[in-house]
Fold this sequence. Notes:
Blueprint: H1 3-10, H2 20-34, E1 42-45, E2 51-54, H3 60-73, E3 77-81, H4 84-96, H5 99-113, E4 116-123, E5 126-133, E6 137-143, E7 146-158, E8 161-172, E9 175-185, E10 193-195, E11 207-211, E12 218-221, H6 244-263, E13 268-269, E14 276-279, E15 285-288, E16 310-311, H7 318-336, H8 354-360, H9 362-394, E17 402-406, H10 414-426, H11 432-440, H12 444-457, H13 460-467
Antiparallel strand pairs: 1-2, 3-17, 4-5, 4-12, 6-7, 7-8, 8-9, 9-10, 9-11, 13-16, 14-15
Helix pairs in contact: 3-5, 3-9, 4-9, 6-7, 10-11, 11-12
Amino acid sequence: xxxxxxxxxxxxxxxxxxxxxxxxxxxxxxxxxxxxxxxxxxxxxxxxxxxxxxxxxxxxxxxxxxxxxxxxxxxxxxxxxxxxxxxxxxxxxxxxxxxxxxxxxxxxxxxxxxxxxxxxxxxxxxxxxxxxxxxxxxxxxxxxxxxxxxxxxxxxxxxxxxxxxxxxxxxxxxxxxxxxxxxxxxxxxxxxxxxxxxxxxxxxxxxxxxxxxxxxxxxxxxxxxxxxxxxxxxxxxxxxxxxxxxxxxxxxxxxxxxxxxxxxxxxxxxxxxxxxxxxxxxxxxxxxxxxxxxxxxxxxxxxxxxxxxxxxxxxxxxxxxxxxxxxxxxxxxxxxxxxxxxxxxxxxxxxxxxxxxxxxxxxxxxxxxxxxxxxxxxxxxxxxxxxxxxxxxxxxxxxxxxxxxxxxxxxxxxxxxxxxxxxxxxxxxxxxxxxxxxxxxxxxxxxxxxxxxxxxxxxxxxxxxxxxxxxxx
Length: 473
C-alpha cells in the first residue's frame, strides 16, 4: 500500500490531496537506485535455461549524492541566536541530537529522494530532532512560503509486532497542533488496527497543542533542482532524476569491463586425447584437463601438430572501457550541474590548488552555492522550530534573530593562500599587516605583533625582499 492509502485509512478526516503518483513514479524509483537496486540490476543470461545474474555497478547515484552533501556541508558554519538563552537552547539541542554528524547523512538521502524533513519534538522534556526521509512524509497544506501542514509516518518493531505511528501536524490560530494515532500489525504489508498510543510509548499524547508557536515544528529541505516532473507538488526532485539513462549506461559499461576480465581469463586449447574423464555429483560424465599432472603418457598420434597446446587468450579492452566511462561521467557531471571532470576517476591531471579548482569548476561551485543557500534557510528554520518548542514549554516569547554564517566559500590550501597574499603585497594591493593576518589566519592585533617581531629580528631589507616592497606598511 502507498503512503497516501495508509494515511487515508488511518486518518480519514484529514484533508489530503492525492499526489501518490509522485511518490510511486519519482521518489520510490530514486530510492531504489540510491540503495543500489535499480531496475537494470538483474539481467538475463543466454543459454538453454533461463538464468539471471546481477550486473556489476558503480552506484554513481550514491556517489554523487554523498559528494554533493560533502561539498554542501563540508565547511563549518556558525549558528547563533541574538538572545543568549535561546542561543544556549539551540546549541544544546544540536549537540544532543548529533546534528553535525547526522546532517550530512540526511543531506545525502535528501539529494537522492528529492527532499527530507527535519522534525522537532519533545521527548521526556528534552528537545529532539528527527531526520525524516521524503518517503515518510506527506504534505497536506502548502503555499508560496512552503509546506505548512503534513503527516509523518513512522514504523517501529516491538515485541514481534509492527507499530505504525501517524503524526498530523497542522497550523492553527492558537499554535501548532499535533495529532497522533497508532496502528499495530503482525506483518509489515498493512497498517493493522488502532491500538492505544501507550502500548508503544507512554509519553506520547493523542493530541498536543504547542501554544503560541507561529511556524511549523518541521522544516522541509529540497535540492536546488527545478521540478520538471510535476509543477504543482511542493516536493523536490532527485538530483539524478534527469540522468537515470546515463546512470544505466555507466553501469552497463562498468559491467562490461568486469565481464572483460571474467571472460578474458587465460584460455588454452589442448588435444582431446589429453583430457580425462570423471563424473559429477549427478552421475554425468565430464571431461577435464589435469593441470597438476606433470607426467604425460605417450599418445599414438601421427600428426605431431595435434599435440600442441595453443594459447587462445583474448586481449582485454581496458582502454576502450575506461575512455567510455570517462565520457559518460562527464555527461553525468553536466546533467547534475557539475563541471566536466568533477566525477572523473582519471588522476593524470595531478593535484590542483584551491584557486585552480575555483577556476576550473565554476559550474560545480555555482551548484554547490545554490544548495548551500537552501541549507542555510533550512538550518534557520530548524532553529526556529527548536525555539518554538522551548517557547511553548516556558511561555517565553522573547524576540530574536537567527544567523547562519559560513566560515569560507572555498576550502583553500595554505600554500595558495600565502602565495596570493605575497602577490597582492608585491602589486601594492594589500598591506603587509593584512597579508600576515590572512596568511597565518590571525587577527590584526596578533598580526601587528608578528610584523614587529619580524622587523626586530631581521634587517628591514630582508622584509622588503620577502614581500617585494620598500618597507612601508
